[in-house]
Amino acid sequence: MRAAIVGSGYIARVHARLIAELGGEVVAVCGRTLAGAQALGIGQAYDNLDAMLRAEKPDVVHVCSPNSFHAEQTIASFAAGAHVLCEKPMATSADDCRRMIDAADAAGRVGAIAYCYRGYPIIRELRRLVRNGDFGALWRITGLYLSQDVCDPDKYVWHFSPGLCGPAFALFDYGVHWFDLLQFVTGQPIAEIQAQFSTRRPDRTWRGRPGEGPRPQGEATGDGGVRVDFALEDQADLLVRLAGGASGSATVMALSPGNPNHIALSVDGESGGFDWLQEQPNSFVERRPGLKIIRDRDPDRLDPADRWTAAVPGGHPEGYPDAFRNVIAESWRGMRGETADFPTFGAGLRGIAIVEAAVASAAERRPVAVGLPGADFARDYPMA
Fold first, then answer.
1. Using alpha carbons only, how large is the chain's radius of gyration in Å?
2. What are phi and psi of 304, to 5 degrees?
3. Rounded distance, CA 180 to CA 119, Å?
4. Distance in angstroms (rounded) separating the CA atoms of residues 211 and 153
5. Three-class SS string for 152-170?
6. For residues 249, 253, 258 and 262, what is the CA-based torsion angle, rounded to 10 degrees?
7. Is 45:52 a contact under the CB 8 Å cutoff?
8. Average pLDDT along the chain
9. Per residue in 228-277, pLDDT tens?
10. pLDDT classification of 189: cutoffs 50, 70, 90
11. CA 2 to CA 23: how far, in whole Å?
12. CA dihedral 67, 368, 196, 140 (to 10 degrees)
């Protein structure tokens, strides 16, 4: 695939590496500044998306820019004839997601979301076990997404700048990943959510350092910085219920000391359950009455349709880049019409609808149904 990347930050660098590993070619990078695009050191550098699309005519555009730009950049890419792999969150509103889906349909192109954690072989195994009924009817679902990414009070990321992130921070940056894992593994949509939001560090100061984005609106400081009153949640405590009746809780936290990227998923059913940690992705704990079994990753135990996700034999660890590479690979296969089993734009829309329901719940202090009229979960979350 001839790929172009929009964005020049950390996640753009991850995409560039994995595109190369899959045999693709990064023909161009479009950044907020030409210098930023050139800093990636690969492909032709641009600071204008339309110019890049006209000149390079990529097969696929990987959108790795701040949240508020996803919709328009994706729609422009479809109009230019490219497929799109968009970073999460898909957009900052469900309405924008629907515009993106309509644009893909009108162009006859395919859109995918970089829900990278579903690419682990263990997650594929758990999906088969749950959906095949090995744990029985599901009762309890719980989880965590804990990060220390913005724990440092002196740290500033572009998400803190008003207008760039959208109506949520922790749920858009971390929570949508957990929502996707839960729905992917259980095969059931989140039907209802109740949320409590907290902002633990409301004062942030922009100083113009790399990764902080353009100068935001706010109160000027004496040393050239800008103090921003950050009003979005950096901690979200949630109660969730699946369409099948299973219920439980989750905490999403951006200020968790000692947890660089702690993702946990725990499920109980009538005949068994499991526990999985993203920081130990090559195993899970299977639980039965009176019994706990540690199941290490074993490609031979995978369903034939999932065996391709294991790049090395059992006993050899695989990690985040391998899972991410799997998701890009299956997304590209979907763009070529070879599979429907990839993170669809329908799955991306569901993530945004869940966040919107959580924002409403936190404001109104009540449970809120996740409304997606006319949506088809089986189409949004297919299984090969």
1. 20
2. -50, -35
3. 12
4. 16
5. CCCCCCHHHCCCCCCCCCH
6. 50
7. no
8. 97
9. 999 999 999 999 999 999 999 999 999 999 999 999 999 999 999 999 99
10. very high
11. 10
12. -100
- The reported pLDDT for the residue numbered 384 is 81
In angstroms, rounded to a whole number, what is the distance separating the alpha carbons of residues 115 and 111? 12
Helix axes 49-56, 70-79, angle to 10 degrees: 30
* Helix (H) / strand (E) containing 380: helix 377-380
Residues contacting 6, CB < 8 A, separation 6+ = 12, 29, 30, 49, 61, 62, 63, 64, 65, 69, 73, 77
Q: What is the pLDDT of residues 53-109, one digit of tens each?
A: 999 999 999 999 999 999 999 999 999 999 999 999 999 999 999 999 999 999 999
As given in the structure block, the two tokens for residue 219 are 């109160």
Mean pLDDT, rounded, for 353-378 = 96
CA–CA dist 71, 63 (Å, integer)? 10
- What residue type is assigned to position 232 of the chain? L
Instruction: Residue 253: name the closest of 151, 165, 159 by CA.
Output: 151
**pLDDT at residue 211 is higher than 90:** no
User: Angle at Cα 66 formed by Cα 222 and Cα 257, nearest 5°?
Assistant: 70
pTM higher than 0.90? yes
- CB-CB neighbours of 36 under 10 Å: 18
